[in-house]
Hints:
By secondary structure, this protein is mainly alpha-helical. It is built from 4 helices and 2 strands, in the order ααβααβ.
Amino acid sequence: xxKTKCLLIAVSALALSGCATQxxxxxxxxxxxxxxxxxxxxxxxxKSESQGTDEEMAKAISQLQSEQSQLxxxxxxxxxxxxxxENDTLYSIxxxxxxxxxxxxxxxxxxxxxxxxxxxQIINIK
Length: 126
């Protein structure tokens, strides 16, 4: 019986020493709550930084799209050029480019005599 009593006391002591007290559990819970609060504030800070970055990116993309549209319009309005080839005439060039001969002549005031085109000469077409 004495042996059983000692064994029971030893087992109880071991069991109690392995269990945390109510105070220790409360302290651990308090630490966990503090960590959660810290992490939540970090997440909120990252969200606000990210939101600012997203807005800046959206503005930059919008500006780039606007600039791109302007460049396309400018490119379309710039005269295109054509290099004269053998047997080309201003009339044949105008026909190929679906434009009147008068318009082609107006785009090329540098041409004094339309009958004297040089191979390789660059002219404006549209």
